[in-house]
Amino acid sequence: MAEHLDTIARTACVSHLLRFPLLWKLLLPLLFLCVLLVAVLVLLVLAVRFWLQSNRTVRRARDGRGERVLWCAIRALQNR
Q1: In Å, how far from its chain's centre is CA 48?
Q2: Is-contact 23 17, C-beta < 8 A?
Q3: DSSP assignment letter at 6
Q4: How far apart (Å, rounded) are the C-alpha atoms in residues 72 and 64?
Q5: TM spans, by residue (predicted)?
Q6: What whole-number distance in Å separates Cα of residue 66 and Cα of residue 80?
Q7: Which whole number is the average pLDDT over 39-54?
Q8: Cα–Cα distance between 33 and 44 in angstroms, integer?
Q9: What is the mean pLDDT of the chain?
Q10: What is the mean pLDDT of residues 32-52?
């Protein structure tokens, strides 16, 4: 009996919301705006992540080359 009343209350609540077109006029654009902002935020985080990874790769390549030159110089000094 209580479940039946709960179902009726939910149906009444949904039908109550459907009667107010202003609510839907506000709800749908806000829902769209939230989805859009989440997508922009995800893309921004991914872009920053890839940018930081590319900078790290460039630094590693640059530092690795400098380290190799240093060891070559040390080896040349030892061979003298």
Answers
A1: 10
A2: yes
A3: H
A4: 12
A5: 26-52
A6: 22
A7: 94
A8: 16
A9: 78
A10: 95
For residue 65 the two structure tokens come to 């080359």
* Domain, as residue range, for 58: 2-79
The amino acid sitting at 18 is L
What is the biggest distance separating any 2 CA atoms in the chain, rounded to whole angstroms? 99
Per-residue pLDDT at 41: 98
Whether this prediction's pTM lies above 0.85 is answered by no
SS3 letters across 7-60: HHHHHHHHHHHHCCHHHHHHHHHHHHHHHHHHHHHHHHHHHHHHHHHHHHHHHH
pLDDT tens track for 14-39: 566 566 676 777 888 899 999 999 99
